[in-house]
């Protein structure tokens, strides 16, 4: 039982500890995940907690790369959605990481996944996200 709760506690602590900021100017220039709807096969990947997603880097070839590429596109960073993590995807991941205040290494690990998931979060009660 302890093993089941540990990842959940860690994940909730990581979400609370992340220094996520919301830059209105950047959001306006990039659009948001609410502009488009994730394809069903990619939306199913959102059922996997960010800390359990595969770590992606240049050379990765899998459906999770398509989710990454789709998100980068929706964010406003033109990226071909082909499931292959090549130079264009790497360049856009690095720009995304820089704009989100993450370590800029081109590797999509847990913290980058958390930011990607945040792009797809929508309030469920119809209210808007709070703004500073």
What structural keywords apply?
132 residues; 6 helices; 48% helix
Describe the protein's topology:
Blueprint: H1 2-17, H2 24-30, H3 40-43, H4 63-75, H5 87-99, H6 110-119
What do these coordinates show?
Residues 1-10 and 15-35 have low confidence and may be disordered. With 132 residues, this protein is mostly helical. The relative contact order is 0.16. It is built from 6 helices and no strands.
Question: In a nutshell, what does this entry contain?
Answer:
With 132 residues, the protein is mainly α. The protein has helices at residues 2-17, 24-30, 40-43, 63-75, 87-99, 110-119. The protein is built from six helices and no strands.
Ends: how far apart? 39 Å
- Share of residues in helices: 40-55%
Name the average pLDDT.
Answer: 78
Summed up, the helix count is 6
Detail the poorly predicted runs.
1-10, 15-35
The structural class is mainly alpha
Rough outline = globular
Number of E-state strands: 0
Largest sheet data:
none
Order of helices and strands: HHHHHH
Report the C-alpha radius of gyration, rounded: 15 Å
């Amino acid at each position: 039982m302890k093993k089941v709760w540990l990842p959940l506690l860690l994940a909730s602590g990581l979400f609370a500890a992340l220094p996520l900021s919301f830059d209105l100017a950047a959001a306006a220039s990039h659009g948001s995940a609410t502009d488009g709807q994730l394809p069903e096969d990619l939306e199913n990947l959102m059922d996997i907690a960010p800390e359990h997603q595969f770590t992606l880097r240049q050379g990765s070839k899998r459906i999770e790369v398509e989710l990454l590429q789709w998100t980068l596109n929706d964010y406003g960073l033109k990226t071909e959605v082909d499931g292959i993590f090549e130079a264009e995807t790497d360049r856009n991941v690095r720009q995304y990481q820089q704009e989100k205040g993450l370590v800029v290494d081109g590797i999509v690990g847990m913290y980058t996944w958390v930011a990607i998931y945040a792009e797809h979060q929508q309030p469920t009660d119809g209210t808007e996200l709070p703004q500073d």
